[in-house]
Amino acid sequence: MAWTRDEMAARAASELRDGFYVNLGIGIPTLVANYIPAGMHVTLQSENGMLGMGPFPYEGEEDADLINAGKQTITELDSSSYFSSADSFAMIRGGHIALSILGGMQVSEKGDLANWMVPGKVVKGMGGAMDLVAGVKRVVVVMDHVEKSGAPKLLKACTLPLTGAGVVDLLITDLGVFEINRGKSPLKLTALAAGVTLEEIQAKTEAVFEVGL
Amino acid sequence: MAGKTQKDAAEALAGVLFDGMTIMAGGFGLCGIPENLIAAIRETGVKNLTVVSNNCGIDGFGLGVLLESGQIKKMISSYVGENKLFEKLYLSGELELEFNPQGTLAERIRAGGAGIPAFFTKTGVGTLVAEGKEVREFDGELYVMERGLTADLAIVKAYTGDAEGNLVYRKTARNFNPMMATAGKVTIAEIEHLVPIGALDKDNIHTPGIYVDRIFVGASFEKRIERVTTRPREEKASA
C-alpha cells in the first residue's frame, strides 16, 4: 500500500510552520493547501504576482484577471497583495520565501532535480521552477517513486536536463520520505508509507541510501 | 506635442511595425494579454518576428494566432505547455525557441528597461540555461550572467489609464506588463478604461506615463480563462 496523492500532500503539509510564506507547485503540491493545520497562519505565494492566495471561486464568480501560476481561477483574501513578475521573483530569488513544494520527474542522491523537459519529447519549459529551487530556503519535492514503466526516479544521477543542482532538501514519494539535505549529507530514508517494506523501496530505488526510520 | 491617445489598435501600430523586429508582449497565460494589439498585428501580416512573452497563448487565441499565421520566427519564453501547435512547430524545426527561467526573463526585461546590460543570478547554475554563459563566484556561491533585454516594440495591457500614459493594472493581470512597458523602444498600451487626467490616484500609478508612447481603449476584451476552477457552493454554508 503506497500513499495516495492526498496522503502525500498531507505528509508535505507537515513541513509547514506558522508564519511561513510558501510557494506550491502544480499537481500534488497544490493539494497541500487543503492540509494546512487549523490555526496555523501560512501565506501562499503565486509566482505570477500574488501573495495570499485564497480558495477557488464559487461558480459564476470567476475573474479572468485573478489566476494562479497553474492558470486556474482563484480568489483573494483581505490580506492579499498583487505585484509584478519582477517583484515576485525578487521575493523568490532573494530568499524571502520559506518553503517551495514542487513536483519532479527525477531526483538524485546529490539533491539534483529534473522536472522541466524530456529532450525531443516534452517541450514545455521550466516556468518558475529554476528560480524557485535556486532561491527558496527549503525545497521539498513530491513525486511518484517510480515511472509508469516501473523505472526508478530516485537516481544516483539524473539523466534528464536539470532544473537545479544540489537544491532538494526533502523528497516525499508514494512509498516514503527521504532526507536529501542538498547532497551535503548521505541520502537517508526517514519514513515508509504504511505497508511498504524496506525491501520494496530498495528494489525501486537506484540511489544508495541510509535507513533512519 | 502630439497626443498619446489613439483611436484603436491599428492606428496605434501605424508606422512602428517592420519584418524581423522584436516584440515584447505582456501577460501570463491568457491573463493580462494585449489581445486587441495581437489581433491587429496579425492583420498587418508583419513577419519574421521575435516575440518575448512568458507564454505563447493557446491554440487559436492570444499569441497562438500569430503562430498559426506563421508570423513568428522565434519565441523567448519560460513555458509553452498550453500550446500544441507551438510544440509541433518547435519539434519540426519551423520555430526557434529560447527558454528563460521565468524570474530570469522578468529580470532581464526589468534590467533592459533600466539601462542595466547584464546581471548575475543563481537561477540556472549547473543546468542547460547556464551553458555558454559566464559563471562567477560571489561570496562562495556560483552565479550565472544574464543579459538585459529590450525590444523594438512592447505591447502591454492595463486596466485603467489616462492620456499621459499613466497605467494601473488589475490583480494578477499585472505580471510582465510593467517591466515590458519600460523595455520597448516604442511602448503601446491597450486599456479597458480611459479616465480623465487627474482621476488616477498619483500614489498608486503602476507604470508612469514616461514609458508609454501610445495608448488606446481596446475595442473589445474577450478575457478568456484557461482553467476555470471553482469550489462547490455548499462549502459556504458549512464554512
Description:
- The complex is a heterodimer of chains A (213) and B (239).
- By secondary structure, chain A is α/β, with parallel strands linked by helices.
- Chain A is built from five helices and 15 strands.
- In chain A, strands 4-3-2-1-5-10-12-13-14-15 form a ten-stranded mixed β-sheet, sandwiched between helices. In chain A, strands 7-6-11 form a three-stranded mixed β-sheet, with no helix packed on it.
- In chain A, strand 8 and strand 9 form a beta hairpin.
- The longest helix of chain A is centred in the first third of the chain and has 9 residues, at 5-13.
- Chain A starts with a helix and ends with a strand.
- Chain B has helices spanning 9-13, 35-44, 64-68, 84-91, 102-113, 177-183, 234-238, and strands at 22-25, 49-52, 72-77, 96-99, 118-121, 135-138, 141-147, 151-161, 167-168, 184-194, 214-217.
- The radius of gyration of chain B is 19 Å and the shape is globular.
- Chain B is an alpha/beta fold and 239 residues long.
- In chain B, helix 5 (102-113) packs parallel to helix 6.
- Chain B contains seven helices and eleven strands.
- The longest helix of chain B is centred in the middle third of the chain and has 12 residues, at 102-113.
- Chains A and B meet through helix 3 and helix 4 of A and helix 4, helix 5 and helix 6 of B.
Helix and strand topology:
The complex is a heterodimer of chains A (213) and B (239).
Chain A: H1 5-13, E1 21-24, H2 28-31, E2 43-46, E3 50-53, E4 76-82, H3 85-93, E5 99-103, E6 106-108, E7 113-114, E8 117-118, E9 122-123, H4 129-135, E10 138-142, E11 154-155, E12 170-172, E13 176-179, E14 188-192, H5 198-203, E15 210-211
Parallel strand pairs in A: 1-2, 1-5, 5-10, 6-11, 10-12, 14-15
Antiparallel strand pairs in A: 2-3, 3-4, 6-7, 8-9, 12-13, 13-14
Chain B: H1 9-13, E1 22-25, H2 35-44, E2 49-52, H3 64-68, E3 72-77, H4 84-91, E4 96-99, H5 102-113, E5 118-121, E6 135-138, E7 141-147, E8 151-161, E9 167-168, H6 177-183, E10 184-194, E11 214-217, H7 234-238
Parallel strand pairs in B: 1-2, 1-8, 2-3, 3-4, 8-10, 10-11
Antiparallel strand pairs in B: 5-7, 6-7, 8-9
